[in-house]
Structure formats: structure tokens, C-alpha cells
Design goal:
Helices cover 72% and strands 0% of the residues. With 358 residues, the chain is mainly α. α10 (252-280) runs antiparallel to α13 (321-352). The chain is flat and about 75 Å long. 31% of the residues are buried.
Length: 358
């Protein structure tokens, strides 16, 4: 029996060879387009007579997006152009948002570093007129640390327990009511929180101005942020971890304490520090309840007390060069304080977070 061989179809050699490789822009294309756009934006700004360099930057950003889209559409196609345009838009928006922040930090460091030294950090303004040189922020630094610390001690446990209730136990009308009031509290202006404590604590109960009164107002502002951030972090904990703990016979309260909270401790700590940063710069409650004082008061429960935000407001309102320098120095110290607290919180969260790997 003979083997039959099937004939292969004839190959048309006149057809051009096909390729799956799509043309692409070189890797240096985004950098090159950015430089060209920056040059064009600067040139247009100079020709138009615009003195603001912010306008030059915005024109350059628009040109960068336009040139990127046109080149990518021509070379790589519309689908790839849309993808590259979206990526470029995200990066451009990020840079536009970073520029004011970097400018603010640079200005604060440049002006505040002139006065920040050991004397500035260890002396108060007692006996020093606002128009004279000298004085320091020790009284305001003590007040800020005490007021923010008391507010954190009040709001962090309440916010944590509220979030645990909403995520782990909350069902029915009570949970809906708590969620509603937390949402309402999130949008409360700081002056309203100060007026509430002023009317209840000072006018009705007849207590005097003190750092504790200001801390209560700050805790009202801090509490909803802690609740919301903690609630979101607890929702990110996989249910499989809870179910595995329940399968081993561990009660629910112990599962929350030993499994859920350690897993979410990093995000919870970050949320608390965001709330601390939110209240550390508040001035309105301090003006209403703490009332400010140029002398050192280490007792937050009695007498008037200052804080860094109030000190900045007071010195800037004085309207002279020495007071301006002290205001910039206090602003620099406040930024550094918030950054130190954030770094400390990150370290604690990493230390307490569950270990991964073997």
C-alpha cells in the first residue's frame, strides 16, 4: 500500500511579509517631549509678556499632553495613544499638585531657619513686645503638645471602638444612626466645634478657659477621621482570617484583639496620625477656648494657654519684621513636629505589624 502525500498549497511570494512587532516611541521620548514642551512654554510666556512662571508651567503641561497624544497616535495608534495620554495626565497632575507643596516647604524652611535655634525653642514671649526681636515658642510648643495629646487620648479610643462596632457588630438602626452622625461630624467646621464647647463647658458649666477645653474641641474634629480611617482598614482585613480563628474555637472579641487589629494596625496608625495632623494646625478652637498666653502654662486644666497655630496667627497679625520671622519659625517647627509624629507612627506600625515570611 503506497503512502499518499498531500500537496501543500502554493505560496504566493508576491505578498509582503507580515510582522507582529508594533512601532513604538523610544524610551527617552517622554523626557524629550517634556524638554521641548518646557522650552515652548517658556518661549510663549516670554513672547506674550507673562511675568508669572506658573503660567509658563501650565502652558508647558498642556503642550506636553498635546504633543504626546499626537506623536503616539501617529506612530503607535489611537489605542496606545489613549493609554499614554492617561498616564501622562496622571503624572502631570501629580507634578502640578507637588509644585505648591514644594514651594511652601522651601519658603518655610528658608524663612523659618533664620530664627529657629536653642533660644527660640526654650524661651517664651513673656515680657517681649511683638515689635521687638527675641522671644521664643516654648510656651506655644508646650500648649500644642498637651492639647493635641489630650485630644488624641480622648478621640483615638472612642474612634477605634466605634469603628470596631460598625465593622464587626453593627447591624440595624443603631449602626445606621452612628454612621450618619459620623458623616455629619466629618463636615463640621472647626469654629462650630469651638462654639459648642464654649457654650457647654465655659458658659453653662462655668469652667474657665484652658488647654483642656481646646483639646475637647480638637477631639470633636479628630474623632470622625479616626472612625472613618479605622473602619476602612478593618474592612480590608480578609474574612478568611476571621473564619480561621473562629474555626479554632477562638471567641469573637479575642479574634478582633489578636487577629483583626494586628493585621490592620499599620493603616489604623496612619489614620490616627492623619487626624493628628488635621488638628495640629487648628486655630479657631484655640482662639475661643484657650485664649492664648505669652507666658508658660504647663497645666492644661487651668488658665489660659497658647499653641503653635495661635502663636503664628498672633505674630503674623502684629505686622512687623521680627514678628514675621517668629511666625515663619513657628510654622517650621509645626511642620517638623507633624513629620516627626508621622515617622514615629510609621515605625510603631511596622514594629507591631504581623511578620511575613518564614
Amino acid at each position: 500500500m503506497s503512502n499518499t502525500v498531500m500537496d501543500k498549497p502554493p505560496v504566493n511570494s508576491s505578498l509582503p511579509p507580515t510582522t507582529l512587532k508594533q512601532p513604538r516611541l523610544p524610551r527617552w521620548a517622554p523626557v524629550g517631549i517634556a524638554l521641548v514642551s518646557l522650552g515652548l512654554g517658556t518661549g510663549l510666556g516670554l513672547v506674550a509678556g507673562w511675568e508669572s512662571q506658573v503660567q509658563w508651567g501650565l502652558i508647558a503641561a498642556l503642550l506636553y499632553l498635546l504633543i504626546t497624544y499626537v506623536l503616539t497616535t501617529t506612530i503607535e495608534g489611537k489605542r496606545q495613544a489613549k493609554d499614554r495620554f492617561a498616564t501622562s495626565l496622571v503624572w502631570t497632575s501629580f507634578l502640578i499638585a507637588i509644585v505648591p507643596l514644594a514651594s511652601l516647604i522651601w519658603e518655610t524652611v528658608a524663612r523659618g531657619s533664620k530664627v529657629v535655634d536653642g533660644y527660640f525653642l526654650t524661651h517664651s514671649m513673656f515680657g517681649v513686645p511683638n515689635m521687638s526681636e527675641g522671644g521664643g515658642i516654648y510656651h506655644a510648643l508646650v500648649g500644642t503638645l498637651q492639647q493635641v495629646g489630650i485630644a488624641t487620648v480622648i478621640s483615638a479610643p472612642i474612634g477605634l471602638l466605634t469603628a470596631i462596632y460598625l465593622v464587626e457588630y453593627g447591624t440595624g438602626k443603631l449602626a445606621k444612626a452612628v454612621t450618619f452622625f459620623v458623616d455629619v461630624m466629618t463636615g463640621i467646621p472647626s469654629i462650630v466645634a469651638g462654639l459648642f464647647v464654649l457654650s457647654f463647658w465655659i458658659i453653662i458649666l462655668d469652667f474657665g478657659y484652658s488647654g483642656f477645653a481646646g483639646a475637647m474641641a480638637l477631639s470633636i474634629l479628630m474623632m470622625p477621621i479616626v472612625v472613618r480611617s479605622t473602619e476602612e482598614m478593618l474592612k480590608l482585613v480578609p474574612n478568611e482570617l476571621r473564619e480561621a480563628s473562629y474555626a479554632l474555637g477562638v471567641p469573637k472579641w479575642r479574634t478582633i484583639l489578636k487577629v483583626v487589629l494586628p493585621t490592620a494596625i499599620g493603616g489604623i496608625t496612619t489614620g490616627v496620625m492623619l487626624a493628628v495632623a488635621r488638628i495640629a494646625g487648628e486655630t479657631a478652637p484655640v482662639m475661643l477656648l484657650v485664649f492664648g498666653s505669652p507666658s508658660i502654662n504647663t497645666n492644661p486644666f487651668e488658665g489660659e494657654q497658647s499653641s503653635l497655630p495661635y502663636f503664628i496667627f498672633e505674630q503674623w497679625g502684629a505686622g512687623n519684621d521680627p514678628s514675621y520671622d517668629r511666625a515663619w519659625g513657628a510654622a517650621l517647627v509645626l511642620i517638623a513636629l507633624v513629620m516627626i509624629l508621622n515617622l514615629a507612627a510609621r515605625g510603631i506600625a511596622r514594629w507591631k505589624a504581623p511578620k511575613t515570611g518564614r
